[in-house]
Amino acid sequence: MFGEYHHLFRQLKKRPDNFKKYMRMNHDTFKYIYFKTKSRLQKRWCNLHSKPILAEESLVLTIRFLATGINFTQLSLTFRMGISTVRKVIIETMDVI
User: Fold this and answer.
1) What's the CA gap between 41 and 96, in Å, rounded?
2) Tens-of-pLDDT digits for all 97 residues of the chain?
3) DSSP per position, the chain
4) CB-hemisphere CA count at 13 Å for 53?
5) pTM given for the model
6) How many CB atoms lie within 10 A of CB 81?
7) Phi and psi (nearest 5°) for 3?
8) Torsions phi, psi of 2, nearest 5?
């Protein structure tokens, strides 16, 4: 509810230049990857607030990891997920991709 995905990412979708800076790809490329992987990314993961982790959220998390090289600890803080959840989501999303 308070992580990057639920606040920042939704705003970035409305600003193509900032979206590209954040995701290191344009929104059309992201949508293409998302729609190709969506059905296989839907899981019943839960974050610290017991809300399901969405397929799009998993993809954003993984692309941020791949684009920036930021470590799992930092991602867990900014996305408000446990470190082990971040690790599992990224590994499974990379397998799908």
Assistant:
1) 7
2) 678 898 899 899 999 999 999 999 999 999 999 999 999 998 655 555 567 788 999 999 999 999 999 999 999 999 999 999 999 999 999 999 9
3) --SHIIIIIHHHTT-HHHHHHHHSS-HHHHHHHHHHHHHHH----B-TTSPBPPHHHHHHHHHHHHHH---HHHHHHHHT--HHHHHHHHHHHHHH-
4) 27
5) 0.87
6) 25
7) -80, 180
8) -110, 0
Which pLDDT score is estimated for 7? 86
- Find tokens 């998302």 and name the residue: 34
Closest CA to 49 of 87, 76, 80: 80
